[in-house]
Amino acid sequence: MSRMRLAPGRYELKKQLEELRSANKELEASRDKYALLYDFAPVGYFTFDREGGIRAVNLTGANLMGIDRSLLISRSFEHLVADKDRPVFVDFLQRVFANHDKMTCRLKLGKGGSHPVFVRIEAMASGSGDECHAALVDITERKRAEEYLQESEYNLAKAQSMSHVGSWRSDPLTGDLRVSDELLRIMRLKREEATPEILASLIHPDDRDSVMALLQQGSEQGTNYEIEHRLLLRDGTSKWVFTIVEPAVNIARQVVKLYGTTQDITERKQDEVRLRNKKNELQAIFDSVNDGVIVFDHNGSIQHLNHICPDFFPPEVLSEGGCRDVFHPELAVSPHTCPVELALRGERVETSMVSVRDGHDTRYIDITANPIHDELGEKTRALVFLRDVTLKRVHEMQMIQTEKMSSIGVLATGIAHEINNPLTSVAGYAEALLRRFRDEPSLNSDSRLDDFTKYLEVIVREAYHCKGIIGSLLNFGRKSDGLLGNVNLNALLTEILELIRHQPNCKEMEVVADLAENIPSMLGDPSSLRQVFMNLLINACHALNHRGRIEISTTFSKKDWTIHVQVHDTGCGIAPEVIDRIWDPFFTTKEVGKGIGLGLALTYNIVNRHGGEITVESRVGEGTTFTVMLPACCE
Question: What is the pLDDT of residues 437-460, one digit of tens each?
Fold first, then answer.
C-alpha cells in the first residue's frame, strides 16, 4: 500500500525537474538572444554611475568609442569627451540624476584622427537612482550634413549679396511666402513685412499690371517667365530688377510652388543709360565730322562708319568688305603697306590714294590711320580718316599750270622785246627804200622795179602792224606799279581787242566793238584794268567754244558821270543755281586745266578797288552780258 502512494510523488517531482530544466534552457536562450541584441544594437548602450563611470557598455558602444570593451569598464566617460564639451557632459549627467526624466545632449568625442565623431546621448536614471542608462547615437554624418548645409546657406547668402540676387518661394494654395535676406535688403523690408501684398505694392505702378499678369499666368499654367521691371520703394526711390520665375508642378500638372529670383540691376541700367548717352554723343561727333571715318576691327573688317563714307565707296564694299576691299580691291591679299594693317600693328600712317569708279570722276583721298589699343593689349583696332582733297589737288595742278603760263608770259614779254628791235630795223630800211624810189626818178623807169614800191609799202604796213601787236602785248604784260593815272578806256580796249583777235581759238568768232566817241578818261591802274577786260573777253571766248559773236561797247552817262563797258557773248550761258557763286575764289564751271576760278574773283576786286561795280545777266543757251561801271574823271 505505501509503495503505491510514493510512486505518484516521485513522478510529479521528476516532471517538475524536467520542466525546470526546460525553463532554464529557454531562459538561457532568451538571455543569449537579448545579450546578442544588446551587443549588436545599432546604438551604443552605456550604464553610468553618478560620477560618470562606465559600469556597462555594449559592443556597438565600444566600437563607437574605438576602445576595447574590457578597457572601458570603470573608466570615466568624461575623459572620453572632447575638452570643450566636458563641462556640457558633467552638467548633463547631473540633470539626469536630478530629474529622473529622459534627457538629451550632443557631444563631440575626444577620439584621435582627422575626422571627429559626434554623438547624441539620451539618458535616464534607474529606479534605484545610483546609476543611469544611456543610448549613444552616431550623428557624425548628420553633423557634417548640417555643417555643409550651413556652409551652403552662408555661401548662397554671400553669393546673393555679391550678385544682388534675392530668392523667394511661394505656395499658390496657402499663400505661404519665404524670402531670402538679400531680397529683403533689395526691397528694404523687415522679415515680418515680407507679405505678398506688400511685395506687390512695391512694384512700380507703370509695371504692376504686366508683372502681376505674368505671376498669375505662372501660378495657373505653370509657365516659366523672365521680366525686367521697376520697383518704387517706400522712401520714394526706384530700382530696376530682373525677375526669373520657375513653377514646380505635381503629377497632375498643378502648380504647388513658385520659385523665383529677383536681381537688383539698377547699376547695370544706369550704366546702360550712360553707355547709350555716351554712344549717342560719340555717334553725333562721328557723324558731324566732314571727313569719312571708318573703324576696322582686329581682323581688318569694317566695324563702324559715318555717313560720309558712302560718298567714297560703293555700299556693297562698306556693308560686307574689309580693308582689302576698300583700299586694295585689285589684290588677293592686303599688302604690308596697307594703312589698316599698319595701324593694327600699332603704327600711325598718313598716305593717299586715287579712287577711280565707273561713272564717277577721279577723286584724290588723303588717308590717316591710327591704332585703337585694346585695354587688354590683345585686339587692336584701326581708326581711319578719309579726306577728299580732289579740289585741293586740282587747284594745286591749276596753280602749277598758272605758274607755267606766268613763266611763259615773262618769256613772251622778253621775246617781244627781242622781236620789236628787228621789226624796227625792217620797217626803217623799207621806209628808206621807199624814200629812195621817190627821190631818184631814174629808178621808176626801170621796169624790173615796178613791183618794188608796192612790196615795200606792204612790208612797212605789216611791220608796223606787228609792232602794234607787240606793243599791246608789252603793255598788257607790264607789271603794275600801283600808281593811278588817267586811263583812256577806249584805247585800252582797242589794245586788248588787238591781242584777242590774234588768238588761235578766236579766228572763227565774230568780235564786234562799238566804242562811243568822246568817252572821258578815268583815274585808275592801267595794268589792273587791262586784266579786268582781258578776263571778261577770254571768258566770252570760252563760252562760245570757237563759234559765235562777241560784242564789246562803251557808253557814258552824264547823269552819274559813269562809264559803262558791256561785254556780251552768244555762248552757253550760266545756270541760275551757280550764277551767284561765279565771284567766289576757285569756283569754276570750266573743265580741269582750262581755269582755276580766280579770274572773275580778281575782276570783282579790281573793279571794287576802282570804286566801280560789275553785274552779270545770263540765260542758259542764249548768252551772257557783263556790265562794268567805272567812275569817270571830272571835267
Answer: 777 777 766 666 667 777 777 777
